[in-house]
Design goal:
The complex is a heterotrimer of chains A (557), B (427) and C (233). With 557 residues, chain A is of the alpha/beta class. Chain A contains 18 helices and 21 strands. In chain A, strands 1-2-3-7-8-9-10-14 form an eight-stranded parallel β-barrel. Chain A has a five-stranded antiparallel β-sheet with strand order 15-16-17-21-19. With 427 residues, chain B is an alpha/beta fold. Chain B folds into two domains: 9-286, Alpha-Beta Complex (Spore Coat Polysaccharide Biosynthesis Protein SpsA, Chain A); 302-420, no CATH class. Chain B contains 19 helices and eight strands. Chain B has helices at 9-18, 36-50, 69-75, 77-81, 106-119, 137-150, 167-181, 197-205, 212-216, 218-228, 252-269, 271-274, 302-314, 316-322, 325-335, 346-362, 367-389, 394-410, 412-420; strands at residues 23-29, 56-62, 93-99, 124-127, 154-160, 193-196, 233-240, 285-286. Chain C has helices spanning 2-54, 57-64, 66-72, 78-102, 107-149, 154-177, 181-206, 208-219. In chain C, helix 1 (2-54) packs antiparallel against helix 4, helix 5 (107-149) runs antiparallel to helix 6 (154-177) and helix 7 crosses helix 8 (208-219). The chains are: A alpha/beta (557), B alpha/beta (427), C mainly alpha (233). Chains in contact: A-B, B-C. Chain B binds chain C through residues 164-169, 189, 245-253, 255-256, 259, 296, 298-300, 303-304, 306-307, 310-311, 314-315, 318, 363, 365-366, 369, 372-373, 375-376, 379, 382, 386, and chain C through 68, 71-72, 137, 140-141, 143-150, 154-155, 222-223, 225, 227-233.
Chain lengths: 557, 427, 233
């Protein structure tokens, strides 16, 4: 229960923590999927507000909301038709404001989507732009009389799009789109576009959102003879946004969605004057690969290639999200391996990725789910938990596009899994109902009752992580035991040291760790708080069960 | 009683770290600092290209090198990988090294290898020599693949030979082992071969590591074990074989001591298996079609004949205690022939060898001396061969080789009779 | 005179009978001892043979390689050899004890001396045996090596080695039993020294080519080695 003074001024509470995003544990959800309050079969902000206690109990301290703007919903809301409103299905702008206040009251920050690269073709801007070549907003989009400009640029949605140019029958010319053809790219060479986008951001910042995830930022600018990705002009635009943000809204955060190699993503941090955070896309598939291979090599290699970033910046790490598990940033050999191991059924594959949730990919093996979650929460970066993964939700690969991982949240074993009181046929998506992952088996209520459920476990591990800043802000030093099936590293922040040891293998392992640098320290296991033998001169021998991991505080007493 | 041999603790610790593997490639070494880099590179390239998903270990077993061979093996891999594209292999390819003894012994090296294969539950294993300059990544893959993917148990190499290369193997070791053990494996005595984990485990159980015959040619012992215990064998054509340092291969005396000594010892150890076998079975052969190349000039021959003749004369009493009377008489008779008209017939050659084998079995005299006594006779046979085939085509030589094999098979009952006979040859 | 002769003969006859009467019991005792000794020796031989059969000494001996030496020296198996040796040693001991019972003057001393010499004789026999086997082995090894390497006069080399080892073994055996110690040592030194000197001169003067060839083969650069024969493998 919060103190009265805090309730009166929640925003100020949060503002002193200028690097709050480094310490965040972010919960990603789509308002549509979470909870329906008005029985129309679609989740809404009031329903979400009702579930904030659950999220607070879980221990997360930031919510990342997927697009909730008015949209034809042909790309799950990423085709925005109005930037400064809320889709009627999800409630009203006031509902959103109420939700925001309630979240802040619970010390939960809110990050929203800002789809800056493109709009829906239903957006008034595009409607105007296409109406005639002389329209004032014509130049807000990228037009061409031919489809030969920007040759050789890769197509992102290879399963559905044949070209990055689409023919507009109204204005009889081509327009540029890096995603679906109904999502024309904005023309950031036009200052008016930049200004308009800033105004959109301001709108939400004034309401009180704590940050934006900028979608598809690498693609803002196009130039002939280039890949049209990560161009210097793009960075200039970001820098401008950031400068204005810092000036007018200190303490707010920009998160980049740039599915590139770590060295290329590095540029989006600038000198600490661009994005505050960016997703570490290449790490994610390698975590899955490492567990399957039972070999730490993929993780170590990618982290060794990850460049240093400014002190005020942070990587965002995740296991799964609303999109397919992307395999763009791996080699062909690695992609084939991932397909063969995790997506044998071709229905599981889309674009260059796998459209499955965490638990089904782990074959519902609780130990593996825990191992990966433990890795997520102990490696450097801000972790993002995808809604439903905390209870081990399943997926439905037979729903189109990536909708199989966007099914309704399973609250209980009752009507519509407690998601909605509507008729089941009216739900925006069917609830998972098979014998293994169905809502009768996997739901929040039943897991809340058990202290040993996945939900309870996830809560305790988040709580442990939140209690020690070393996880969110500390350095990382990898140990190299000869047993390659064990991934071990030391997180360090000042005098605080935590040793993390992970068994990536399905069989018990023994490992000898060279902890000479921590001689005379006592390892204290962080979940049970039991003492382990003091570190001496000899290599430190540990044995781990299948997929087991340890977090040890190293204390010199 | 043989001394108990235990793996060193350090080696055991390394094996523990590696855990179960699918593939094991072993490099026995002794003072191979100059060539181990290239060997390791070929193996790693092969694993990267052909076995990206498999769990693999490269094992160096060293006989106490004084030139930092082991250090080179362990240190160079990271620097070399800078040349390879990053993130090409999914898994860690382990590199472990052990010193099995303070002095080189191929037998003890192999023991360490089969022990490692057994403990790591390796499915497919290969042994390669750092002394082979012509080793390529495809060699490694060709030795591993038949076991790993085609369920064979033993893979013998096949090399591209010139007409006058490897005559000991072609004129004695191959036809004799084919007739005795019933399998047509050409290169039983080679430095590279592949085998399965099951064969490794069976070899490990045998207490033969102190036997000189096994210590000198353990690969051949393993091949013969595979043949005798009905493991699925095959051959894979690898290409031409060249030594990294020319002129370092064993001379004829040492070669015969090692190979023929090993062959006779294996006959002794496996008599229960081969005595009742008749004929021979072809083994599947993979790789491109090949034949003897036409190049290759026969070496100076006069000296060979002189050595043969003087050997027959000087070793008269020794040969008399080994050979049957009429065989000895025939050998003495051909030693008197004019060099230009000399001929050591196939029939006499086979009979001679079989009588040597039977005398070895009876331990008519010290076995090593017995094998050495064969050297002059081999020289005679070699001289005869060179004389006969100086102008022969590769095809004709292949035909002749097959005739020799059949003669060995035809006279096998004679060998069996002499082998089982308890009477000794009267000098 | 006649009575003196008859008296003397009678006395002598009486003495003889008395001596014989004195000697006969001892003879009988000796024979009994010898016969008992024979039985005891036979029993011991049988027991030892049985024990050695049970402990499989013959197989151990085969594995250790000793049986091969016995065969080369035309000796029976190890079990048989030890059993028979025990038989003869035991019976010899009883025979010697029996002889000592006879009380023949001077014989006892000789018998004691013989007993003292027995260990030395045994060692001498062993030395000769080992010398024989070693000479056989090394001379044959040298012969084979020389023949296969193409060195001239391999038989001479082989015979020389055999001679040297025989000479050494015989000298050691004779020295062991103490026969003409000084003479044997001196003779061996002279003969051995002369032999070695002769070899050195012969080698130095006549073996220059051979020496060079040997050194080139074993110490020179292997790449420059001439291949007279095709590579065997």
């Amino acid at each position: 229960m919060l103190q009265k003074s805090q309730q009166q001024n929640p925003a100020s509470l949060l503002q002193d923590e200028s690097l709050w995003y480094k310490d965040a544990v972010i919960y990603q959800l789509h308002v549509r999927t979470f909870c329906d309050s008005n029985g129309d079969g679609i989740g809404d902000f009031r329903g979400l507000t009702n579930k904030l206690d659950y999220l607070q109990e879980l221990g997360i301290n930031a919510i990342w909301l997927l697009p909730f703007y008015p949209s034809p919903l042909r790309d799950d809301g990423y085709d925005i038709a109005d930037y400064t409103s809320v889709h009627a299905s999800y409630g009203s702008l006031q509902d959103f404001k109420d939700f925001l206040t309630a979240a802040h009251n619970r010390r939960i920050r809110v990050i929203t989507e800002m789809v800056v690269n493109h709009t829906s073709d239903q957006h008034p801007w595009f409607q105007e732009a296409r109406s005639s070549r002389e329209n004032s907003k014509r130049d807000w989009y990228v037009w061409s009389d031919t489809d030969t400009r920007y040759q050789g640029v890769r197509i992102n949605f290879v399963d559905t799009e044949m070209s990055n140019w689409a023919w507009d029958t109204i204005s009889k010319s081509y327009y540029w789109h890096r995603f679906f053809s109904h999502q024309p790219d904005l023309n950031y060479d036009n200052p008016a576009v930049r200004e308009a986008m800033w105004e959109v951001m301001k709108f939400w910042l004034d309401i009180g959102v704590d940050g934006f995830r900028l979608d598809a930022v690498p693609y803002l600018i196009e130039r002939d003879g280039t890949s049209c990705e990560n161009l210097p002009e793009t960075h200039e635009i970001i820098k401008e946004f950031r400068r204005r943000l810092d000036l007018a809204y200190p303490g707010k955060m920009l998160l980049a969605e740039a599915n590139q190699r770590p060295a290329e993503v590095r540029s989006y941090f600038g000198a600490g004057d661009e994005f505050h955070m960016a997703f570490h896309f290449p790490l994610m598939p390698r975590m899955f690969m490492a567990v399957k291979l039972e070999d730490r090599k993929p993780i170590i290699e990618i982290l060794e290639q990850t460049p240093q970033i400014p002190d005020t910046c942070q990587w965002c790490i995740f296991l799964r999200n609303h999109d397919e598990l992307t395999l763009e940033m791996v080699t062909d050999v690695e992609r084939d391996y991932m397909y063969d191991e995790y997506a044998v059924d071709k229905a599981m594959r889309i674009n260059l990725g796998i459209r499955r949730r965490l638990a089904p990919m782990m074959e519902n093996d609780r130990r593996r789910v825990e191992l990966l979650t433990g890795l997520l929460l102990s490696m450097p970066g801000t972790p993002i938990i995808y809604y439903g993964d905390e209870i081990g939700m399943g997926d439905n690969i037979y729903l189109g596009d990536r909708n199989g991982v966007r099914t309704p949240m399973q609250w209980n074993g009752g009507w519509n899994a407690g998601f909605s009181s509507a008729d089941p046929e009216r739900l925006y998506s069917p609830v998972i109902s098979n014998a293994v992952y169905g809502y009768q088996a996997i739901n929040v209520d039943s897991q809340r009752r058990s202290a040993h459920s996945l939900l309870s476990w996830t809560k305790s591990v988040i709580q442990t992580r939140n209690a020690f800043r070393v996880f969110s802000r500390g350095s990382i030093e990898f140990l190299s035991p000869t047993n390659h099936r064990v991934l071990a590293y030391v997180r360090r922040l000042g005098d605080e040291k935590v040793l993390v040891v992970n068994n990536l293998s399905s069989s018990a392992q023994a490992v000898e760790l060279n902890l000479q640098a921590y001689k005379r320290h006592i390892p204290i296991e962080m979940f049970g708080r039991n003492l382990f033998p003091r570190i001496g001169d000899l290599p430190y021998l540990l044995t781990l069960g299948p997929y087991q991991f340890y977090w040890f505080r190293l204390r010199k007493i | 009683m043989a001394e108990e041999i235990l793996l060193q603790d350090d080696f055991l610790r390394q094996l523990m770290s590696v855990g179960e593997v699918d593939l094991l490639v072993a490099i026995p070494s002794y003072n191979h600092a100059a060539t181990i880099n290239e060997t390791l590179q070929a193996i790693e390239e092969s694993l990267h290209q052909n076995f990206v998903r498999e769990r693999a270990v490269i094992l160096n077993v060293d006989g106490g090198s004084s030139d930092a061979t082991r250090q080179m093996f362990l240190d160079t891999s990271e620097r070399r990988n800078a040349g390879l594209k990053s993130l090409t292999s999914l898994r860690t390819i382990h590199r472990i090294s052990c010193e099995y003894d303070r002095s080189p012994s191929q037998g003890m090296a192999l023991r360490s290898v089969v022990a490692a294969a057994d403990l790591l539950r390796a499915r497919s294993c290969a042994v390669v020599s750092p002394g082979t300059a012509s080793l390529t990544p495809s060699w490694v893959a060709n030795l591993l693949r038949p076991v790993y993917r085609e369920q064979f148990d033993f893979v013998a190499p096949l090399y591209a030979r010139s007409r006058f290369q490897g005559l000991l193997a072609r004129d004695l070791l191959y036809p004799m082992s084919r007739a005795i053990f019933g399998r047509s494996i050409r290169e039983v005595y080679s430095d590279e071969w592949g085998f399965c984990g099951r064969l490794a485990s069976q070899c490990l159980e045998q207490e033969v590591w102190h036997e000189e015959a096994v210590r000198a040619r353990p690969g051949a012992w393993m091949a013969i074990t595979a043949m005798c215990r009905d493991f699925k064998c095959c051959q894979y054509f690898l290409g031409p074989k060249t030594a990294a340092v020319p002129g370092t291969s064993a001379d004829i005396v040492e070669a015969i001591r090692q190979t023929v000594g090993n062959l006779f010892w294996c006959m002794e150890a496996n008599q229960a298996q081969w005595l009742n076998r008749t004929g021979s079975q072809a083994v599947p052969t993979f790789g491109p079609d090949h034949e003897l190349s036409a190049d290759g000039i026969p070496g100076a021959q006069e000296k060979i004949f002189d050595l043969f003749r003087s050997g027959v004369n000087e070793l008269h009493p020794i040969l008399a205690s080994i050979l049957a009377e009429d065989t000895h008489a025939q050998v003495k008779a051909i030693a008197l022939l004019d060099p230009g008209k000399f001929r050591f017939s196939i029939e006499l050659w086979v009979r001679t060898l079989y009588e040597f084998a039977a005398s070895y079995h009876r331990a008519a005299l010290n076995r090593d001396h017995l094998v050495q006594a064969l050297v002059p006779l081999y020289r005679g046979r070699l001289y005869s061969f060179l004389l006969e085939h100086a102008a022969s085509s590769a095809e004709a030589m292949e035909v002749e080789s097959e005739i020799l094999c059949q003669e060995f098979e035809r006279q096998k009952p004679y060998l069996v009779a002499r082998w089982n006979s308890k009477s000794e040859v009267k000098p | 005179m006649k009575e003196m002769i008859i008296h003397g003969l009678g006395q002598a006859y009486e003495n003889l009978v008395r001596m014989f009467a004195d000697f006969l019991p001892r003879l009988v005792v000796m024979l009994v001892i010898v016969v008992v000794g024979l039985l005891v020796a036979y029993v011991l031989k049988t027991v030892l043979r049985t024990v050695l059969h049970v402990t499989k000494l013959d197989r151990l001996s085969e594995e250790a390689g000793a049986s091969r030496f016995l065969r080369m020296a035309a000796l029976p198996s190890m079990t048989e050899l030890l059993s028979r040796s025990l038989f003869w040693v035991t019976w010899s001991g009883f025979i010697l004890i029996g002889i000592s019972i006879l009380g023949v003057a001077g014989l006892q001393e000789q018998i004691s001396r013989l007993f003292l010499l027995l260990p030395a004789i045994f060692v001498a026999i062993l030395v000769l045996f080992l010398g024989l086997v070693t000479a056989n082995f090394l001379s044959r090894a040298a012969l084979l090596a020389a023949v296969n390497a193409g060195y001239p006069s391999p038989k001479l080399l082989s015979w020389s080695i055999r001679f040297v080892i025989w000479a050494l073994a015989i000298s050691m055996a004779l020295e062991q039993v103490g026969v003409a110690r000084q003479t044997v040592i001196a003779a061996f030194s002279i003969v051995f020294g002369a032999f070695m000197l002769g070899l050195a001169i012969a080698f130095g003067l006549g073996g220059r080519e051979l020496a060079r060839d040997f050194l080139e083969r074993n110490l020179g650069d292997k790449k420059t080695k001439k291949h007279e024969e095709p590579q065997p493998l």
